UniProtKB/TrEMBL annotation:
PANTHER family: 2-IMINOBUTANOATE/2-IMINOPROPANOATE DEAMINASE RIDA, PROTEIN HMF1-RELATED. GO terms for cellular component: cytosol. The lineage of its organism: Bacteria, Pseudomonadati, Pseudomonadota, Alphaproteobacteria, Hyphomicrobiales. One of its GO terms (molecular function) is deaminase activity. Belongs to the RutC family. Gene3D superfamilies: RutC-like (3.30.1330.40). This is Enamine deaminase RidA, house cleaning of reactive enamine intermediates, YjgF/YER057c/UK114 family. SUPFAM superfamilies: YjgF-like (SSF55298). InterPro entries: RutC-like_sf (IPR035959), YjgF/YER057c/UK114 (IPR006175).
Amino acid sequence: MTRPLQPDTIRAPFARYSHGVEIPAGHRIVYTSGQLGITEDEVIPKGVEAQTRLCFKNIKAILESAGMDLGDIVRINAFVTDRMHMGGYMKTRDEFTKSPPPASTLMIVSGFTREEFVVEIEVIAAKAE
């Protein structure tokens, strides 16, 4: 079982995430590439929440191919194209993450390969062997 790290000597997280997550020995680890909100048939929905849902759907499929699920995520790196997307991203992210929540970083970037994309998400997952 992974262990969240929340030291009392530092400020509590700003949102629903853990400052760190310990992965004990004997765990397999999966790293995903950044996933974008696009369907198999090239549809890119408008809005950060819809795109975030697709990102997590893609991540779920990747993890399932390794015998894992969204509950095995220990770290999230996410990128949005504007501060206005932060709230919608975090709200939607929280629908897909377990408790205790994984470690997480959210960055604001100038853009992605297509102008329509507003969010990209990559994760690290770990599961006992």
